[in-house]
Amino acid sequence: MKTGQVQDHFRKQVDNYRGLMIRIIPDYEVAQSLLVDLLPFDGTKKLKILDLGSGPGTLSELVLERYPQSEVLAFDLTQEMLDSAKVRLSRFGSRFRIFQGDYRNKELFGVGYDAILAGMTLHHLTDSERKTAFQNFFLALNPGGIFLSQDIVMDEDPIIREWHYNLWRKFMRDNGEDDSFWYEKHKEKDHPVSIESLKSWLTEAGFAHPACHWRFWNFSIVSATKED
User: Fold this and answer.
1) What is the number of other CB atoms lying within 10 angstroms of the CB of residue 3?
2) Could you write out the three-class secondary structure of 82-149?
3) Mutual orientation of helices 179-189 and 3-11 as an angle, nearest 10°?
4) How far is the C-alpha of 81 from the C-alpha of 87, rounded, in Å?
5) What is the number of other CB atoms lying within 10 angstroms of the CB of residue 90?
6) How confident is the model at residue 16 (pLDDT cuts 50, 70, 90)?
7) Which residues are CB-contacts of 80 (< 8 A; sequence separation ≥ 6)?
């Protein structure tokens, strides 16, 4: 998806983002909490964390609450999303910072992170962009750091893939959403890949121990670590 398309798409959803995610993504809040549960750090450790595609800051909020000594940089393409996050998370003061930009540009977010989180965002990248992004994330992490991604995926078996799509569409209908609208947007703009491909690309980028920790139909949580 082109940068302008992504910005326009999410600018329209700022005020209702969290509610929308709950209606179109199975166990959205469960997965967000699990993503934070998977951070392998002591709760008292001072951490520097990058939240990519942060939206209105729901994931950043969970991290800041769980790790009282942590600092989070919320990185998003849509300024309206970041403005919403800044207001909601103002109680965290200087521990929470925002940056508007395209994370495909590695120069924008720098290095020195203990964890990089990507919640429902990497499917906007093409295969080649995602491979490059994984390389950039690896370089941006400190030794011992972790990359965690919650995202839409697709099964390698076309029969299972279609089955998952049908279940997903029913889930959206049952929640009062127009499943045809969201499915067509997904087919038009998103670039989901298999878990096997994700793990392979993470290994190629230098990561160790790529793993899938959770899966619900065509949604998953994947991690990989940068060894000391």
Assistant:
1) 12
2) HHHHHHHCHHHHHHEEEEECCCCCCCCCCCCEEEEEEECCHHHCCHHHHHHHHHHHHHHEEEEEEEEE
3) 160
4) 10
5) 9
6) confident
7) 10, 11, 14
Question: Which residues are CB-contacts of 28 (< 8 A; sequence separation ≥ 6)?
Answer: 21, 22
Residue 193: how many CB atoms within 10 A of its CB? 20
Superfamily of domain 3-225: Vaccinia Virus protein VP39 (3.40.50.150)
For residue 196, CA distances in Å to 72, 117, 157, 199, 203 come to 30, 19, 12, 5, 11
- What residue spans define the domains of the chain? 3-225
Cα separation of 220 and 211, whole Å?
10
C-alpha to C-alpha distance for 6 and 19, rounded to whole angstroms: 19
CA-closest candidate to residue 209, choices 150, 146, 156, 131:
146
Global pTM reads 0.93
Copy the structure tokens of residue 16.
């209702």
Instruction: Pick 107 or 30 by higher pLDDT.
Output: 30
